[in-house]
Amino acid sequence: MDKPLLKDSIRLFEKFGQIKSRSMFGGFGIFAGETMFALVVNNKLHLRANARNEEAFKQADLKPYVYQKRGFPVVTKHYAIPDNWWETPDVILEHAERSLNAAQADKEKKQQASPNRIKDLPNLRLANERMLKKAGISSVDQLFEVGAIGAFQALQESHHESLSLDLLWALEGAVSGKHWSVITPQRRNELLSKLETSALTAHH
Q: What is the tally of structural domains in the chain?
């Protein structure tokens, strides 16, 4: 049951201003104003990772929350904190403040940089926007949330013909703000490996 933990978390984060929660990812997203920086799900508090603390989270062996979307696993940026952190709430607050600052910075950057329409993103045209809409992805925010892999899998599901991997590179470029041709071979291999893993998980 997530509710008692959600109440404790909201109480702890009140120093950040107006805190509210919304149902999200099968749990409850915690927002300061309109910015989500934490998640309560499976009776655990998760904090949003950013460039500064993601490495520290991984080294501390914290695990990101994974949820199922259309039968495929989607890895979020929210990492479950250990239960013993609750013994020293200041540690939680310190990490949560970094998560909130980074989430706000990301949001501002995205609002300044990203176009309002999918067709205006790098590599994508109106035909791609229509395909994605048919697959249930109708906004730039949704595309950024599911990422290149999630979008490609949604297209595979809604599209009857086989899709070229060029479309996967185009989606990755659209999400990362670059031309598809500059995506490195290493990144392409990572994407293929993730695609394969997700497909195997979905079939089990």
A: 2
